[in-house]
Write a structure and sequence with these properties.
Elements: H1 8-18, E1 29-32, H2 39-48, E2 54-59, H3 62-74, E3 78-83, E4 94-98, H4 102-105, E5 110-112, H5 119-129
Parallel strand pairs: 1-2, 2-3
Antiparallel strand pairs: 3-4, 4-5
Helix pairs in contact: 1-2
Length: about 180
């Protein structure tokens, strides 16, 4: 398995593009189901911290969850970090609350989070109670069908040459193409 940590300027751009207006309400929630180091949630805190968001992070990798918890702790975020597969609600491993009373005490801290007290866990159960369909289980190695042989490659027509010359990016400028 490989991991890719999204660069900070790209994360900030994605945060600004994905905000919908709900962030204007105090105490809104933001959930990152594959948090990595927690950079997306830190960006949410940076851009919308005055609304005191409740940030929720999940990841399969325990090291990533620990990085996220420390990032949130050091940057004054309030929320929870859960180590579990975000696609399997029965895969709870452990969780921590981060800075739960920071706005009252000003003291950063982590506490153990039981799954019944987790906002993430409760959202899963609300969906189940409201009749949301269960996600299908991933096939195991024993039950997974054997992969089919790849189809023979088809010749690809040459693409036309671009008509406009490409401009070089200025130092520090993000280019997509």
């Amino acid at each position: 398995f490989g991991q890719f940590f999204t660069p900070a300027p790209l994360v900030d751009m994605m945060t600004m593009m994905s905000t919908t207006g709900a962030e204007k309400k105090p105490g809104f929630r933001a959930i990152d189901p594959a948090c990595g180091s927690g950079r997306m949630l830190l960006s949410m805190q940076i851009h919308h911290g005055q609304q005191r968001p409740y940030l929720c992070a999940q990841d399969l990798d325990a090291v990533c969850c620990k990085m996220t918890a420390l990032n949130m702790l050091f940057h004054g975020c309030v929320g929870e970090v859960v180590c579990q597969n975000a696609l399997d609600r029965n895969d709870w491993r452990w969780g921590v609350t981060v800075n739960h009373h920071l706005y009252r005490t000003g003291i950063p801290y982590l506490t153990v989070l039981e799954k019944e007290d987790s906002m993430i866990w409760n959202v899963w159960h609300e969906h189940q109670r409201d009749g949301m369909p269960e996600l299908p289980a991933a096939p195991s190695a024993e039950t997974a069908p054997a992969p089919e042989a790849p189809a023979p490659a088809q010749p690809v027509a040459a693409s036309p040459k671009p008509t406009a010359p490409r401009r070089k990016a200025a130092p520090g400028q993000l280019t997509l193409f």
